[in-house]
Amino acid sequence: MNNIIETKKLCKTYSTGGVQQHVLRNIDLEIRKGDFTILMGPSGAGKSTLLYALSGMDKPTLGEIRFCDEDITKKNSDQLALFRRKHCGFVFQQTYLVDSMSVMDNVLSAGFLADNDRKSVITKAREVLKSVDLDEELWDKFPTQISGGEAQRAGIARALINKPDMVFADEPTGALNSKTGKDVLDALTRFNKDGQSIIMVTHDIVSARRGNRILYLKDGEIAGELDLGRYVSGDKERHTALRDFLGGMGW
Predict the structure, then answer these.
(1) Residue 89's domain is classified under what CATH number?
(2) How far apart (Å, rounded) are the C-alpha atoms in residues 142 and 97?
(3) Domain presence at residue 198
(4) Going by C-beta distance under 8 Å and a sequence separation of 6 or more, which residues neighbour residue 178?
(5) Fewer C-beta neighbours within 10 Å, C or N terminus of the chain?
(6) Residue range(s) defining the domain that contains residue 164
(7) Rounded distance, CA 239 to CA 236, Å?
């Protein structure tokens, strides 16, 4: 499979009070097109830092990141913003929907960043909202008028409207109960089966099972990797393999 992202000797260091904190340490990594990649590890391992570096939301201290065959470490902030608009979709634990805009308008606003054709963007917004199983009666409601799970699915629709090369998800089910969390994971899984590439940070083994590739970070390094194959609902061996792998990593 073709690689969407490749890193070489990726490092991220923060300086606090003259003390150097090495958050990422010489990470060499390849992310393949179509993979559902899971980043796991203890708090402070560098998971979110790696996610933000790969997406161009944060600059590494050293090293190279090639994303869609472009070295994004050489881009300035304006160039990175344009790059993310074209290639990236983002889903966070908090949806960051604009409360003063309807669900539909939140999705449309992302669409108009990449396409000035109003009719085309509206068509795409309707299609992507349907694809996340969000009832049409909710499209005109404000984010504060819908449930957390519904808002997260709206956030996924917003992330996908421009058909990004990669969706970056940071604990997307962290603030949801098990039922609504499953709905969100089901939506992400469907998109992945259709070819959407996803990188997701999670602490949750149930969420992690949805990935086909597990990367375990510890002390800023990739300490282990597990290939789970494509997700199949009810696969008990999958859960056992992941549990054993995480146990071996000290999780």
Answers:
(1) 3.40.50.300
(2) 9
(3) yes
(4) 206
(5) N
(6) 39-59+77-248
(7) 5
Average pLDDT across the chain, whole number: 94
Domain count, the chain: 1
pLDDT tens-digit map of 98-109? 999 999 999 999
Q: How far apart, in whole angstroms, are the C-alpha atoms of residue 211 and residue 228?
A: 7
Q: Is residue 49 part of a domain?
A: yes
CA 10 – CA 27 distance, rounded (Å): 5
Q: What is the pLDDT of residues 102-160, one digit of tens each?
A: 999 999 999 999 888 999 999 999 999 999 999 999 999 999 999 999 999 999 999 99
Query: DSSP H helical segments within the chain, as ranges?
Result: 47-54, 77-87, 103-112, 118-131, 148-160, 178-193, 205-208, 236-248
- Is residue 165 one of the residues assigned to a domain? yes
Would the pLDDT of 54 be above 80? Answer: yes
Q: What is the pLDDT of residue 229?
A: 95
Does the CA dihedral 11-18-57-34 come out positive or negative? positive
Pairing mode, strands 36-40 and 166-170 = unpaired
Considering the domain boundaries, does residue 23 fall inside one? no
Count how many residues are written for the chain.
251
Distance CA 208, CA 172 (A): 12
Rounded Cα distance, 166 and 32, in Å:
10
Q: Determine the average pLDDT of the residues in 222-229.
A: 97
Label residue 114 exposed, middle or buried (CB < 10 Å: 0-12, 13-18, 19+): middle
